[in-house]
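Entry 12.
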Amino acid sequence: MITILQQIILLLGTILSGAIDAKTGYIYDWITLPMILFGIMISIFLQQWINLILGTIIFVSFFLIYNYGKIGGGDVKLFTAIALLNPTNNIYFLLTGIMVACVSSIIFYTTYYGIKYFNKGIKIEENRKGIKKSIFFGLIITIYFLIITHTGLIPFKTGLLLLLISLFGLIFIALQKGITKNFFEKKINLNKIEEDEVIAEENNSKKILLLLKGKKIISQKEALLLKKQGIKEIFVLRNLPPFGPFIAIGVIIATISPELVKFFLI
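Predicted 3D structure (C-alpha cells):
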C-alpha cells in the first residue's frame, strides 16, 4: 500500500512539474521539496537504503552539472526526488528514467531547433568547431558500434537504434553554437539580472569571465561585483528549453518498464 502511494506521489509530482515547466520554464520548490521530504521518510520507513544512497549521489552529481549551467536547479531537485521515491529501490528504474528523459529531449530539441535554425539560415562558419567535433565523435561512435555488433556483444538492430539516437546528439553538437547564439543568447542590463542566470561565454569579454572566476551561474552578488568594475551589460542564456516534460516522460516509461535500460547495456 505504501509503495503504491510512493508511486502515485512520484508520478503526480513529476507530471505536474513537467506541465508547469513547459508553461513557465520553472520547476517550483513547493512541488519538489515535499517530494524529497516524503521520499526520505518513506525510504527510511521501508528501509530502502539504495534509494537514499542514489538520492545523495544524484543530488551531488547533478548539482555539479547545475554549477556549469547545463541543468536547472529545479531539475536537480526533481531528479533527487525521483531517486528517493523510486518504488523499485534499484538503480535500473532511475537509469531508465534518466536515459529516456535525455534521449527524448535531445531528439525533440535537435529536431525543433534544427528546423528553426535551417529556416533562419545555418552559417557554417559559426559552427565550424562544432562540426569538426561532431565528425570526430561520429567516427569514433561508428567504429565502436561496428565492433560491438560485429563481435555479437549486442544485436545488430540494437546497434542501429543506438547509432540513430547518437546521430541526433551529433547534429546537436555540430549546430549547438549557432542555435545558442540565435535563440538563447541575450544582452541584458545588470539591473535586470534574474535568479540563476547562465553566462553566455562566447560573447562576454575576458574581463567579465575573469571577474566571475569560472562561475557559469550568477546572481545579484556577482552582478554587484561586475557593477563595481564599471560593467553595465552582459550576455546570458535566456528562455532555455524546459527539461521537466521529458523528465516526466522518463518516469512514466520507467514506471511501465523499470528495466528498459538493460536493453541498451552491454
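Annotation: The longest strand covers residues 185-189. The longest helix spans residues 91-120.
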